[in-house]
Amino acid sequence: MRRPIIAGNWKMYKNVNEAVELTNEIKRAVFNVNNVDIVIAPPFVNLSEVGDMLLETNIRLSAQNCYWEQEGAFTGEISVPMLKSVGCQYVIIGHSERRKYFGETDCTVNKKVAAVIENELIPIMCVGETLEEREAEKTLEVVKTQVTEGLAGFDEAYLKTLVIAYEPVWAIGTGKTATPGQAQEVHAVIRNLIKDLYSENLSSEIRILYGGSVNPGNIENLMNETDIDGGLIGGASLKSEGFIDIIKKTSNLCTKKGIEE
Ligand code: PEP
Ligand 1, atom 3: nearest CA belongs to which residue? Predict the structure, then answer.
């Protein structure tokens, strides 16, 4: 079992006071969890404040997006060095909401992943099919294309820290979770693709998260699948109890499987 990641995507929720409160609650409850990588991704405006609160804790800070240039006349955009300067260690790239509402493509995802890695942060690259694509039995083709194009041009040394999140679009924010079997099938295909594109070594080390209506009631079954290495959690990360429960259940599972530290 690879060391799991539980990442909370707060999307466009939480003003600064609410972000501080939620961060405090999570910090207090999970300070002694040491076998799971815990990540939270607040909105941009809260990153600096929350980043300060996470110094010397076991919780890592993520942004939800970035621009690929280092700096310049790009009104409204945020660069990776800026994210780094407020303490971000991760950046979510290519979330389906960004693809759907903000015109992200595999090409922009590719440029952003490059910018994140060049600045020594960790990209969480999201892929996943729509309901229509699943019903047309195109899931595997769509996901393979997204991974291949998202990573086009990178050599293996570049991708040591890369995290991939498989998030079926029909399961995000809908309360419909992919069954563990459905998720495992796609995770295994992604892992195999990484082996074909790169190596056995990278494919066995890369962490692939599942996202799509993960909650405290389904996390254990998902985490029991061989190729699922954690969760990218939206709705259930907005209230401390649910997110903490997901982290603790994942941690207990790791302890059972002998993963410590
Ligand atoms: C997400 O935002 O990445 C997500 C998976 O959302 P939810 O858990 O609400 O489906």
Answer: 234
